[in-house]
């Protein structure tokens, strides 16, 4: 190694430098929103692939200049240590992948010129939370406080520069605001456990507080109201981005908690709470979808049904459970992107997503109407969609323990399917929107690409095996 190779560059400096530079450039060039969003999508996808190729057995990269990049170098800020590890690299990569999808949708039909800059700020925050390795307070215990800050920033992205009421986006703050005090009190009890190892009550109180706080962060029924209310007013790209990033962060936090503090699972009734609230959430999402009169709300209720099933899967311990959770989440991202792509174009052409004003729109916008319908059906596990394999595996896993919850979830998914069948009858029925302009080649290409990915995953779900195998490392 040459002498110049002694100059080492910590990888995290490059990564956060990329985030800061991307946010700043996106803001300064916001007069060219489509170009900025498209470039940002490419950069985020490239960074995600870059992190996915990291080999932790060879932590030093030698650049052509002779400098070295230390992949595992630590960064310390305010007493907290940040470090890229094999356990958190898949989370950072997935965060960037979600950003790439959202920015691609924003480039398709520009609705908010400030979204790319906000997106990079949120990516930096969520990536930083995943990279936090140590600190004065254990990272899993301080995470809800960080989620409050990131969710507050997400409200601006969800508002999207629109004049619509912000009540829905503001409701997204409720879960972390309610959970943070429980985590902070639990942190004090966790510190007392080594001092009084024989006192079982301290462990039970700490486990109960952490379990209840985590349940609040998962936002099941009845804390679900923010999802449909936000989907009715927020741009689909922002809804996709903020929802998936928050839920990925909460799932990663759940993995950290259950690995670091196993008493949450073993010494409390947390699995029972999760099972009960997950079941109610899945049922309510399916039933509420039947009468939805707004395409955004229909999308949200289908996503809520899918999220309830993920919460149900979390209530079962073991590696098999986490494999199923990650599989469901990957399918969820694919289905939500497909639905979001369709909704983005439908809203841009119609000026509304009210189903009562969408009669016959399928004859003018067939590809994006199909993307909306099939993506939504994927969220409820309809056959030949991306979500079918995951939902079927989850129902089989539930039925092995007790067939009744599985039957209830299946019936609820039938309700959501009826909601989409009703929407399909409206959209492909009698034409009442002759003035609606037809799809442009770019929007058709996006819809076809998203549908092709969905069908490919539906036919061969094993193509996600490598991603799930890598992601399992992040969940202990």
CA radius of gyration is 22 Å
Please bin the fraction of helical residues: 55-70%
How many helix segments?
19
Beta-strand percentage? under 5%
The mean pLDDT is 88
- Helix and strand succession? EHHEEEEHHEHHHHHHHHHHHHHHH
Q: What summary fits the major beta sheet?
A: 3 strands, mixed
Identify the strand order in the major beta sheet: 1-3-2
* Overall SS class: mainly alpha
Model regions low in confidence, pLDDT < 50 over at least 5 residues: 1-5
Comma- or semicolon-separated keywords:
6 strands; disordered N terminus; mainly alpha; single chain; 476 residues; three-stranded antiparallel β-sheet
Short overview:
The protein is mainly α and 476 residues long. It has 19 helices and 6 strands.
